[in-house]
Design brief:
The chain is an alpha+beta fold. 33% of the residues lie in helices and 21% in strands. It has helices at residues 2-21, 79-92, 132-148; strands at 24-29, 37-43, 47-53, 71-76, 113-117, 120-121. A six-stranded antiparallel beta sheet has the order 4-3-2-1-5-6, covered by helices on one side. The chain is globular. Residues 1-18 form the signal peptide.
């Protein structure tokens, strides 16, 4: 009986661990003609990693190879802030309930901002929003982005 209980506990722990490892939020900024895009990943543990993809410029003639490196950084969020972000995401699910949001943007500097979670994606959070849940989520996302001091200009 003890052996069976141990096996059941091990299986449950394995399932929970596997589901937690996939339980991450991705925040994606598309970048634009004049700004680099970036991806932020927030793990349930509070670990936050982000990478900035360099802008791609056409090279007409150059003796110096263009840099293709991607900058990667990481921080650890407090448990309360991590829980607040995940709670905001949970409150807005399913993302498929929202119609796509479009807004006028600069050709050179216009970007899109989306949150992805468990295979779903929000509408563009950089456009004006009407739903209070999306507005709340956008505030958490914008606050995190501001705190990370992500440099998108060369």
């Amino acid at each position: 009986m003890i052996k069976q209980s141990f096996i059941i506990v091990a299986i449950i722990f394995g399932i929970v661990s596997a589901s937690n490892s996939k339980d991450s939020i991705r925040i994606i900024n598309s970048g634009s003609t004049n700004t680099a895009g970036y991806t932020i990943t927030v793990e349930r543990t509070g670990s936050v990693t982000w990478s900035v993809a360099p802008r791609v410029r056409p090279v007409i003639s150059s003796t110096t190879p263009a840099s293709s490196t991607t900058t990667r950084n990481s921080i650890q969020l407090s448990a309360s802030r991590t829980n607040a972000i995940f709670e905001a995401v949970q409150q807005t699910l399913p993302f498929t309930q929202y119609k796509p949001v479009f807004c006028v943007k600069s050709v050179s500097f216009g970007t899109t901002l989306h949150v992805q979670y468990r295979g779903e994606q929000t509408p563009d959070l950089s456009c004006p929003l009407k739903d209070e849940r999306l507005i709340t989520l956008s505030k958490y996302v914008q606050s995190l982005i501001a705190d990370l001091h992500i440099q998108t200009f060369s």
